[in-house]
Amino acid sequence: MPPSALLPALLLAATAFAGTAQASDISVVGLFPGKAVLVIDGGTPKTFAIGASVAPGVRLAAVAGDSVTLDTNGRRQTIELGAHLNRTPADGAAKVTLQADARGHFMAQGQINGGTIRMLVDTGATLIALPAQDAQRLGIDYRKGVPGMVNTANGLAPVYRIQLASVKIGDIVLNQVDAVVQENGLPYALLGMSFLKRTEMRRDGEQMTLTRRF
Fold first, then answer.
1. Quick one: three-class SS letters along 106-163?
2. How many Å apart are CA 176 and CA 87, to the nearest integer?
3. Tell me: the pLDDT tens digits for 37-61?
4. Three-class DSSP category at 34
5. pTM of this prediction?
6. Rounded to an integer, what distance in angstroms lies between the CA atom of residue 31 and that of residue 44?
7. How many CB atoms lie within 10 A of CB 145?
């Protein structure tokens, strides 16, 4: 079973990594004296010391208070903890490449409505599906959604159909994405077809590349 979606956001380990030559998105997920924990293009969180190269042409220049300063080819930009810097890829393609885990599952580290979350790619799920605890952590008032019921391994479970303002996986950002929130029986979030159908999916061995279509 994949790790619980309830793990602290700063400690989540994702299997997504950049699908482009240059980083298109840099998120700040943790800060320590002289160091920062960054997520590059939705990949695995990594710790960088001041002066380290974060991505081609990007260096961690400073860590102060609740923000970091990045030097991008001589241009300095400050990013606060929990925020991200979007850098448009040279070819304009919005894509992300995911690596299969030991069980052959594809897990994606992403953001929903600006909050970080880890999701299992599931082409059998019609919509993105969120456990209620994740929805609450993300500040989603899901009970204002359309109620319904689904069958689970533990019997019937109540769900609420909602619409997510934004879903981001790597370089791909989609707005107004349909989803359901399940109150029990769902151990982790599912990245379903309401997101995946808007991408081109290509699998090459242990890697899957998603490219935004619309």
1. EEEEEEECCEEEEEEECCCCCCEEEEHHHHHHCCCCHHHCEEEEEEECCEEEEEEEEE
2. 22
3. 988 876 788 899 999 998 877 899 9
4. coil
5. 0.59
6. 16
7. 17
3-state helix, strand, coil in the chain (%, to 5): 5, 55, 40
Q: The tokens of 44 are what? A: 């695995």
Residue 57 to residue 167: CA distance in whole angstroms: 27
Based on DSSP, count helices (H) and strands (E) in the chain, helices before strands: 2, 19
**CA-to-CA distance for 167 and 188, rounded, in angstroms?**
16
Strand 189-191 to 115-121 pairing: parallel
Q: How far apart are CA 116 and CA 114, in angstroms?
A: 7
Terminal alpha carbon distance of the chain: 32
- Which of helix, strand or coil describes residue 11? helix
How many angstroms separate the Cα of 2 from the Cα of each of 7, 31, 38, 142, 169?
11, 26, 22, 24, 18
Residue 214 has pLDDT above 60, yes or no: yes
User: 206 φ, ψ to 5°?
Assistant: -90, 10
Residue 111 CB neighbour total at 10 angstroms: 20
Place of tokens 């010391």: 49
Structure tokens given for 76: 């300095």
Segment 57-62 long-range contacts (CB within 8 Å, at least 24 positions apart): 57/22, 58/23, 58/26, 60/36
Cα 155 to chain centroid, rounded: 30
What local confidence, expressed as pLDDT, does residue 72 receive? 77
